[in-house]
Amino acid sequence: MNTSLVVLVADEEPAIRDLLRDYLAELDLAAIPVATGQDVLKVLRTTHVDVVLIDAHLPGMDAQAVFREAVKIDPALRRRFIFTGPLTGPQGRTEFGSLMLTKPFRLEDLAAAILELCDRALPQRAPRERRAAEGGAVD
């Protein structure tokens, strides 16, 4: 894997943004952490992003409104969103092809979702990293 994959991480909780940024860095993925839907759109207007990982309940502008605006900026993102949060219904694909992860989710499931959206294989990881991922979860 290489750092050419860029993940925009949108969550209002600084601790979650930091955890996800650090975890994605371990996978050699670049992460851009932001706190609001407006910040997501600002980044998308100036920076190439491969995947948008977004909490469904951001303050100010909800994730679905961000999604609608984001695909106007870059139509390829239609199938590159991962919504997270206390969502109702099963995990899996949304009606527009994006993915949903219900919190709490395992970090390993997040990595698999990102790589699935980008048609990449999950890298082999060192035993310490594998153990941490198996027990690690994001609330």
Which descriptors would you attach to this protein?
six-stranded mixed sheet; Rossmann fold; globular; 39% helix; 5 helices; 8 strands
Compose a concise summary of this entry.
The protein has helices spanning 14-26, 37-46, 63-73, 107-117, 127-135, and strands at 6-10, 30-34, 51-55, 81-85, 92-93, 99-102, 105-106, 137-138. The protein has 139 residues and is an alpha/beta fold. The protein has one domain (6-138): Rossmann fold (3-Layer(aba) Sandwich).
Distance between the termini: 27 Å
- Name the CATH superfamily assignment: Response regulator
Order of helices and strands: EHEHEHEEEEHHE
Q: Mind describing the biggest β-sheet?
A: 6 strands, mixed
CATH class: Alpha Beta
Number of domains: 1
- Secondary-structure arrangement, i.e. CATH architecture: 3-Layer(aba) Sandwich
Q: Biggest sheet: strands side by side, in what order?
A: 2-1-3-4-6-5
Instruction: Tell me the Rg in angstroms.
Output: 14 Å
Helical fraction: 25-40%
Which word captures the global form?
Answer: globular
Mean pLDDT: 82
Poorly predicted parts: 121-134
Work out the number of β strands.
Answer: 8
- What is the third-level CATH name, the topology? Rossmann fold
By secondary-structure content and strand pairing, the structural class works out as alpha/beta
Q: What's the number of helices? A: 5
